[in-house]
Amino acid sequence: MNEMISDRELYLKACEARDASYCPYSGISVGAALLTASGKVYTGANIENSAFSPTVCAERVAFFTAIHSGEREFVAIAVAGGERGKPAKPEFPPCGICRQVMSEFCKKDFKIIFGMEAFSTLKELLPHGFDKDFIV
Ligand code: THU
User: Tell me, what CATH number does 58's domain have?
Assistant: First the structure.
C-alpha cells in the first residue's frame, strides 16, 4: 500500500482511536494515528493507571505497536484529544516524553498533526533535542 492518506484522513483516524482510551482518572481520551513510509497506519489510545505514573500516552502506544511490528520509517502522526465523549479540542499537542520517543525513530521533518488545522514538524516541536547522534 503506497498510496498515502491525507492529513485530514489521518486526523480522523486519530479521532476514532480515542474510543479505545482507558482514562478513568483524567477523563481525557486521546487517540493517535501513525503513518509509516509504506502507507500503513498504526493507531493508539492513552492507557491510564491508578498509580498515575505508569500511564502511557496514545502516541507511544501507536509508536511501540508499530516498532514491535517491525516498522522503522515514519512519515506523520495525528493526535486528537479532549474530554471523553466530547469532540477533540482544536489543538492537542503531544507531551514532551512522546516528542522524545518520536525523536528516536523519526527525522526532523516528521509531521505532527495535532488538530484539524494544526500541524508542525518534529524539529519545530523539539528544537535542540537529545538524540542518538550525541551518543558516540
Ligand atoms: N496524553 C496523551 O495520551 N498524549 C499526550 O501527548 C498528552 C497526554 C494523555 C495522558 C493522560 O492519560 C491524559 O492524556 C491526561 O493527561
Answer: 3.40.140.10
Q: Does 59 contact ligand 1 (Cβ within 6 A)? A: yes
Catalytic residue among 16, 48, 59, 83: 59
69 CA distance to ligand 1 middle (Å): 23
* Predicted confidence (pLDDT) per residue in 44-90, tens digit: 999 999 999 999 999 999 999 999 999 999 999 999 999 999 999 99
* Known active-site residue 117: no
Q: Is 49 among the domain residues?
A: yes
The label of the residue with cell 520509517 reads 73
Arithmetic mean of pLDDT, 116-126: 98
Q: Is 23's C-beta closer than 6 angstroms to any atom of ligand 1?
A: yes
